[in-house]
Design goal:
Layout (H helix, E strand, L loop, with lengths): L1 E5 L4 H12 L3 E5 L9 H9 L4 E3 L6 H10 L5 E4 L6 H6 L1 H22 L3 E7 L23 H18 L4 E7 L1 E3 L18 H10 L5 E4 L11 E2 L1 E3 H16 L7 E6 L5 E2 H12 L5 E4 L14 H7 L7 H15 L3
Parallel strand pairs: 1-2, 1-4, 2-3, 4-5, 5-6, 6-11, 7-10, 8-13
Antiparallel strand pairs: 9-12
Helix pairs in contact: 1-2, 1-8, 3-5, 5-6, 7-9, 7-11, 9-11
Bound molecules: uridine-diphosphate-N-acetylglucosamine (UD1).
The site of uridine-diphosphate-N-acetylglucosamine (UD1) has 23 residues, from α7 and β8.
Length: 338
């Protein structure tokens, strides 16, 4: 089985390529390296023993995408990760986000139709739920108006996929991620943020290693037990494994509907201070942090109802918060060895 992984040199993509190859899938990556490094291919090879096929081009380029699919019409399924994902940047540069995230999806879907490729796994986000009224949040919770253009691209993408599926043989699974953190246990691949990280975990590890002076904790006046915001952090390898299961479900014709969507989280919510405490415990490092004001656009608390994913996919996240923070720390240390 040949699987195209778009954005395969990125954070979630690279971990998914490893899991796919370890399960015997042939992987071809398309990535324009706009937010990743070509060296990740060697890292994937180091772990899995196989260097995946790779092409460097922009999937928002209609002609290049059509040419690629003409040459690779034997692809059995696609996992589409390639997208911009910085929430704050998307507020300042909305067209960059709409152009990149939506054009690439439209081009891929058109090429799927043209070449008879029917299976698409789409990288979505819990951001589609906004601040849910009921917690934990299940797949039936109403979609709320997106807080950012980035979040809106995820909502619109799901709609584009849904409409396309209705009018074609294409089937789709949207995976709505909560907060992926951590790194592969080998510490050979992990998150590689360019510049100052937006996300909590890389900011914590970069502060501990001395790249950043201090972590700002955004708000301690939320209506939560310790006042800091709560998220459902999920280990990146648990998340990657769910993609392989989704692909298997599609190619083995196990889907119950032509478009399905699943929450990928652990079902546990942890506050920012709990993540910091876990990090301090596993690393033996005291973290330099200070409480500052809330970050615009942040929701107070969100964690997943994972029952549907557990029952239907037969998948359950395995790793604890301590395992997540330790793997993130081991990765940061390895990155800074040289
Ligand atoms: C956000 C998006 C999510 C997206 C993800 C991609 C929203 C609501 N969520 O997740 O859809 O997929 O980014 O990267 O837009 N924090 C600090 N200090 C920091 C950084 C973060 O206190 O320096 C706090 C945040 O306020 C938040 C928590 O840590 O409470 C997690 O933040 P982050 O890692 O940025 O993820 P989200 O904002 O939840």
């Amino acid at each position: 089985m040949k699987i195209l992984v778009t954005g395969g040199t990125g954070y979630i993509g690279s971990h998914t390529c490893v899991e796919l190859q370890q399960k015997g899938y042939e992987v071809i990556i398309v990535d324009n390296l706009s937010n990743s490094n070509i060296k990740v291919l060697d890292a994937i090879e180091k772990i899995s023993g196989i260097k995946p096929a790779f092409e460097n081009f922009d999937l928002a380029d209609t002609q290049k995408t059509a040419d690629f699919f003409k040459r690779n019409s034997d692809i059995d399924g696609i996992i589409h990760f390639a997208a911009f994902k910085a929430v704050g940047e998307s507020v300042n540069l909305p067209l960059k986000y709409y152009y990149n995230n939506l054009f690439s999806l439209v081009n891929i879907l058109q090429s799927m139709k043209d070449n008879g490729i029917d299976n698409l796994v789409f990288s979505s986000s819990c951001t589609v739920y906004g601040q849910p009224e009921k917690l934990p949040v299940s797949e039936n919770a109403p979609i709320q108006k997106a807080e950012s253009p980035y979040g809106n691209t995820k909502q619109i993408s799901e709609e584009i996929i849904f409409d396309t599926i209705k009018s074609s043989n294409i089937k789709g699974i949207a995976l709505r991620y909560f907060n992926p953190i951590g790194a592969h246990e080998s510490a050979i691949i992990g998150e590689l943020p360019l510049g100052v990280p937006n996300c909590l975990m890389p900011f914590i590890t970069q502060t501990a290693i001395g790249i950043r002076q201090q972590l700002s904790v955004f708000g301690d006046d939320y209506n939560t037990p310790d006042g800091t915001a709560i998220r459902d952090y999920i280990h990146i390898v648990d998340l990657a494994k769910a993609h392989v299961i989704a692909v298997e479900r599609m190619v083995n014709q196990k889907m119950k509907k032509t478009f399905e969507y699943f929450n990928l989280g652990t079902g546990n919510g942890y506050s920012v201070l709990e993540v910091i405490k876990s990090f301090e415990k596993v690393s033996g490092q005291k973290l330099n942090y200070q409480i500052v004001g809330r970050r615009a656009g942040d929701v107070e608390q969100v964690w997943a109802d994972t029952n549907f994913a557990n029952d239907e996919l037969g998948w359950k996240a395995q790793k604890s918060l301590d395992e997540m923070t330790l793997s993130a720390w081991n990765w940061e240390k390895k990155l800074n060895e040289n």
